[in-house]
């Protein structure tokens, strides 16, 4: 909060400080201060002159409008967001994220046919390694998912140096557990997590533990000593890459994501979690069976 206030003061002292507005938008969205982010977005587009800066300014303002419109359920903000994303693309056609944002706005406004086309536009030009690429593939087929509470897209590096993205796990239920070796309640919950990993082995469930430890060696030793054989990654504290996406401010914090990538629940010591996982994995298995039946129909060659 103090950083946001500092940039607000700097912007008041220098009305032409585009960098201040950019920081206000970024921090405002992180803190859900939409009023500050929108005001800075409205202002920054009046300050820039070269095409790249114009594109960036419109993109930032569009992002603030999209976030605020989604949170407040205001179609006027969403419509303005689409206009700003289009202005960003017009200024810089290589700003592919703006095409993705434009498609997100269309889907948020229930314009599914147009959204499908726009997601397809993005997929034609975007880097396949971009964080939003696989998410766009999913949305291009089912734009209605944009209006669901989708879990944020992210990529982690595992303890054995594999790279895993959430969208790689599409079609499976994902249980994400934020924890740390120094957290007493996390250590107490470990046997329960082990039981889930064992009990659901062979089912469409992926357990992913994301440690907030800063000491890499201590984390690795703990994982090895306690035979934590499911996906393990380390996020380097509450201000790491993944924890802020889920709004994690205390641990243990456990999230369940269904086969569609929709965020279902947050559990902190929830004893009923296994019953919920049974239902979710049963649905995931049914969906997988449907896909298999379509690929290999009965009586087919």
Automatic annotation (TrEMBL):
A GO CC term assigned to this protein in UniProt: cell envelope
GO terms of molecular function: antioxidant activity; oxidoreductase activity
Keyword set includes Disulfide bond: yes
Database matches in InterPro entries: AhpC/TSA (IPR000866), Thioredoxin-like_sf (IPR036249), Thioredoxin_domain (IPR013766), Thioredoxin_ResA/DsbE_sf (IPR050553), TPR-like_helical_dom_sf (IPR011990)
The keyword Disulfide bond is assigned to this record: yes
Major localization class: other
Keyword list, A-Z: Cytochrome c-type biogenesis, Disulfide bond, Redox-active center
Subcellular compartments: Cell envelope
Pfam families reported in the protein's UniProt record: AhpC-TSA
Domain Thioredoxin: 145-286
GO BP terms in the entry: cytochrome complex assembly; response to stress
Name this polypeptide is given: Thiol:disulfide interchange protein
Organism from which the protein derives: Acidisarcina polymorpha
């Amino acid at each position: 909060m103090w950083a946001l206030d500092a940039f607000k003061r700097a912007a008041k002292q220098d009305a032409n400080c585009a960098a201040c507005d950019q920081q206000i938008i970024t921090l405002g969205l992180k803190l859900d201060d939409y009023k500050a982010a929108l005001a800075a977005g409205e202002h920054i587009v009046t300050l820039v002159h070269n095409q790249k800066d114009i594109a960036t300014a419109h993109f930032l303002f569009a992002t603030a409008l999209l976030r605020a419109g989604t949170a407040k359920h205001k179609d006027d903000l969403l419509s303005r967001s689409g206009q700003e994303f289009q202005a960003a693309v017009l200024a810089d056609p290589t700003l592919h994220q703006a095409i993705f944002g434009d498609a997100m706005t269309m889907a948020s406004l229930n314009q599914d046919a147009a959204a499908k086309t726009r997601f397809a536009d993005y997929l034609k030009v975007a880097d396949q390694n971009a964080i939003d690429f696989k998410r766009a593939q999913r949305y291009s087929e089912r734009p209605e998912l944009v209006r669901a509470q989708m879990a944020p897209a992210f990529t982690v590096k595992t303890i054995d140096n594999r790279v895993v993205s959430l969208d790689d796990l599409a079609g499976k239920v994902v249980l994400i557990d934020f924890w740390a070796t120094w957290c007493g309640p996390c250590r107490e919950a470990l046997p329960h997590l082990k039981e889930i990993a064992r009990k659901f082995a062979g089912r469409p469930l992926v357990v992913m533990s994301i440690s907030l430890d800063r000491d890499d060696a201590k984390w690795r030793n703990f994982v090895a000593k306690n035979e934590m054989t499911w996906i393990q990654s380390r996020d380097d504290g509450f201000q790491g890459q993944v924890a802020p996406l889920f709004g994690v401010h205390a641990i243990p914090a456990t999230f369940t994501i269904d086969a569609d990538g929709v965020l279902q629940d947050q559990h902190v010591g929830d004893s009923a979690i296994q019953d919920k996982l049974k239902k979710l994995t049963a649905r995931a298995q049914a969906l997988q069976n449907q896909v298999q039946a379509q690929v290999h129909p009965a009586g087919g060659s």
